[in-house]
Amino acid sequence: MTVDGDELxxxxxxxxxxxxxxxxxxxxSSGLCLIGMLLFALTGITLNNAGQIESKPxxxxxxxxxxxxxxxxxxxxxxxxxxxxxxSINEWLRREIGVSTAERDTEWSSDEVYVALPRPGGDxxxxxxxxxxxAVSYEVTDRGWIAYLNDLHKGRHTGKAWSxxxxxxxxxxxxxxxxxxxxxxxxxxxxxxxxxxxTLGLIIPTLLAVLLIHG
Length: 215
Known about the structure:
By secondary structure, the chain is an alpha+beta fold. It is built from six helices and five strands. Helix 1 crosses helix 5. It is elongated, with a radius of gyration of 28 Å. The model has no long low-confidence stretch (mean pLDDT 91).
């Protein structure tokens, strides 16, 4: 069976288009996930060696007094132990203490309102007394920038925007790897070590997982 010149030209044209698309998707995905890959690789090392990296948490405590006009907003029964703080109190806390409590988890009890304020690289909480005094206590724990980057790696208390970034980064990384694999296949004939090296990259983690990781 013979192939005429026009059909052969069409095949070469389709192949050239396919290869061009591979290179386009490969470099675009590599650009999108480059910084993220460096971040996750670096924090992979810091997480794996967390026990050897010293961390001295810095704890900051602040006290404040809720204005009398706002105390009344806390004395009435919220009807829900997880009810959000009144917007007037949220605004006062943002202005006077510099903390945003809107859409944060709360715990209402008979004597106080407790607001959990978890954050990457540390923790924080705030409580307001409901006994008529309106005393506000705010505590922040900062475990340093390494803990901050580690929490970015884990997506711990990072919010929806960072969660979306992780998903987009993962999609870009998958595209980068798959297009890279196809490009390896295209050039494998001229590079005999291609598949042995790829196979080695599969065998090493598989053997480690099967033989050296104990449940």
